[in-house]
Amino acid sequence: MKRILYIIGLLIPVITFGQSEKVFVIADSTLAEQWTTLGKDWRYQKGDHKEWADPAFDDSSWKELSQNNLNMPDGKHAIANRGEIAWFRKHIKADSNLNKVIVLNILQLGASEIYLDGKLIHQLGKLSSDLEKVVSYNPIGQLLEFPLEKGKEQILAVRYLSTQYKFPIYSPVNGYLRLALTNLSNTNSSDMIKNYYLIFNRDFIDNYYIALGIAILMFIIFSSFFIFFPNERINGYFATAAFFLILSDIGIIYNQDSTTGDPYWIQYCADYCVIIAFTIILYCLYRILEKPLDIIFKIIAFLGLITLVGYLLYEPDILSPVWVILSFFATIRIAVKSRHKNKIGSMLFMASSVLSLLFWVIYILGTLGLIKIQVISYIPFAFMVMPVTLAIYLGYSFGKRSQELRLNLEKVQKLSKEKESILSLQNETLETQVQERTASLNRSIEDLKSIQSQLIQSEKMASLGELTAGIAHEIQNPLNFVNNFSEVSIELIEEVKSEKLKAQSERDEELETEMLEDISQNLQKIAHHGKRADSIVKGMLQHSRTSTGEKQPTSLNTLADEFLKLSYHGLRAKDKSFNAELIANFDETLPLVNVVQQDIGRVLLNLFNNAFYAAQERRKLEGEGFKARIEVSTKSISPMLSPNSTPPPGGGGIIITVRDNGSGIPDAIKDKIMQPFFTTKPTGEGTGLGLSLSYDIIKAYGGELKVETKDGEGSIFSIILPVNN
Amino acid sequence: MKILVVDDEADVHPLFIQRFRKEIRSHELEFNFALSGEEALKYLENNHSEVVLILSDINMPGMSGIELLSRIRQEYDAPPPVVMMITAYGDDENYQQAMQKGANDFLTKPLDFNLLKEKLNQITQ
């Protein structure tokens, strides 16, 4: 960036005085308002000779030149080329009335010695034919003493060595040397024209320090953002851009303060860092404005890359602003494109681009002398406008996002509170509902329990009801016998009595004995049938009793026989036409089993009733020709003798089998028949509890109730009871 | 007169023997007993010509009295034996059924032996 200043310094409209006498006369009025370049009436000679400083030396054979840059009189060709030495001489005279102190300013690329009337007044750098020993020095911004003698014509001689060799060969400026004068009071003025070099140079550097501070601050802030929240990558990119700006600023400031010459690579890097920074910034803008990296971006990035090479071909100080200006146009383009999508961002970036462009336009116009405004010292700020805008936007979006987050958080909190209250309300409702339901369920359970007991009772009564007729018949029969036998016995006794009254000869002893035997036999019969009726009534009572009876040794043969008949007659009482063959195969060796008679009786009754019902059903299907057959058998089993049957726990047991040739049970419902309330009977005829209760009773005895059946052919129900009790 | 009594109750046998002791002694009546309809038919196979009267219970396991009656009416019509049905259930349905199947008479349990004797006398006269 420093070099551009030199170039501008060579171009700026600093007034050049030209006199016809070829002797530059300096009066108070000459330098009153501005710096004056000593740009006319010089003579020059390439080469080096100590005598050339001597005022007595005749330089009339030297070539003349009038040019601000003494080293390039025609603007194209240098006098002193890379590392060469040339001498310049000029006649100068201070007016005898001169009161002001005159100061000299020299802008040069290289090293020089300034002689006034053969006396060395300034040694700027070090000249030598050995380039290794040459020290470049540029006193820009410095005020040099210029001790003119009033009223005397003096010879100003400059011995100059170009250090252009330190720069690439293509540099448009091939070594330069410019001398300017003004009076000392001007240098203290804040007037731009009067104090041009000093002010702009100081401001320029000061401004670069400020820009550097801003860049460092941005770098710290955004790299922190990125480090602590890596998800937001744009902060990282921006911090990188800020880093390159820092590098660039440092490079420029370093160069600016250096007076010993220009390390070209530092300048090159500083300028190129600007391009890198702005490429990254442009990338950030594309991301922020959510634009795909289009061809324009690629072209600009590519041009930036080319600039890397271009620096070796042309003046970097010119290339980088040109490139940056291009990037502003690209920014304006995407900002306009996304003006609906991201209003704030678009406005900000557009404004900042326009502002920057405006600056460069003013700068160029000023440089070309078309307007009288010099903005060069604000270049550091011009380069900072876009990064600062981006930082502002990032801050804005960060703030906005935080705000949104806070609002969302509030919304969520509010919502969760609402949900919580709703939830607690629902919980309460649920609780009361559950309590209500539980209460009603408890009631239902109570109701069910009572209904269950009622059902069990009614099931008993139902099976009893079915038996009433059978029981009546069963009681009627023994009663008939009791009546008949007692009647006949009374008659027999009368006959025996009358026989006794007969004479001995007429008495039939044999008949008498026979009748007496009959009487005795009849009495036994009466007793037998009396007991029979008694046991039936007892059985009936037991059956209907709700309370559990006591276990007593019971002959299952007798029990089975009784209930078979009861069941049969019960059915017959309802269906007179029904008939069945009853077969009893009782194991006479069956031991007495300790059971509650009414329990086992109920089971048997159920099985018999079912068997008869099934037989009756089949008869309905097949007609009168069907011979119903119900078979009951008992058998002692022991685990050793009957390995195939399920051994009752604890050893031996008995098995009661009820076999019928009825309708059988379809496979589909076979698994259900033991379930409570399952019935195939028409509604109202069966409770569906018979087999279920039977199953429970047998289970309670530790036994088993099994069924084998074939649909349409009959069923075999087996009760297996252990006898270890 | 040969009478066949069909009843599943075995004690009917001694009862009849004692009730008709005099008639048996004087050989006026001769009783045979069967415990089921099937047994009765088996007996009739060999002795149907001798049997004049059949007294049958209706409610019996296996073949019922009504069935026996209809079998007798089908198989033995020359000369048709007199068949009297006895039942504990003296209801109308039983009576109608029995009479329809060709019963000569219908008696209810408990048996009134005097009435039975009168009816037997009527038959023998």
3D structure, described in words:
The complex is a heterodimer of chains A (725) and B (125). Chain A is α+β, with helices and mostly antiparallel strands. Chain A folds into 3 domains: 2-189, Jelly Rolls (Sandwich); 199-404, Up-down Bundle (Rhopdopsin 7-helix transmembrane proteins); 550-725, Histidine kinase-like ATPase, C-terminal domain (Heat Shock Protein 90). Helix content of chain A is 52%, strand content 15%. Chain A is built from 14 helices and 18 strands. Chain B has a 5-stranded parallel beta sheet with strand order 2-1-3-4-5, with helices on both faces. Chain B is of the alpha/beta class and 125 residues long. Chain B has one domain (2-124): Response regulator (Rossmann fold, 3-Layer(aba) Sandwich), CATH 3.40.50.2300. Chain B is globular. Chain B has helices spanning 12-19, 21-25, 37-47, 65-75, 92-100, 113-124; strands at residues 2-6, 30-34, 51-57, 82-87, 105-108. Helix content of chain B is 45%, strand content 22%. The chains are: A alpha+beta (725), B alpha/beta (125). Chain A binds chain B through residues 473, 476-477, 479-481, 483-485, 487-488, 491-492, 518, 521-522, 525, 529, 568-569, 572-573, 576-577, 579-582, and chain B through 9, 11, 14-15, 18-19, 59, 61-64, 66-67, 88-89, 93-94, 97, 109-111, 113.
Could you say which structural class the secondary elements and strand pairing of chain B correspond to? alpha/beta
Largest interface, with counts of residues having CB < 8 Å to the other chain, equals: A-B, 28 and 22 residues
N- and C-termini, Cα separation of chain A: 119 Å
Helix content of chain A: 40-55%
- Secondary structure: number of strands of chain A: 18
Architecture of the largest domain in chain A, CATH level 2?
A: Up-down Bundle
β-strand percent of chain A reads 15-25%
Shape of chain A: rod-shaped
N-to-C series of helices and strands of chain B: EHHEHEHEHEH
The DSSP helix count of chain B reads 6
Taking the sheet with the most strands of chain B, its summary is: 5 strands, parallel
Q: How much beta of chain B, percentage-wise? A: 15-25%
Q: How many domains of chain A?
A: 3
Largest sheet of chain A: 7 strands, mixed
Gyration radius from CA atoms of chain B, angstroms = 13 Å
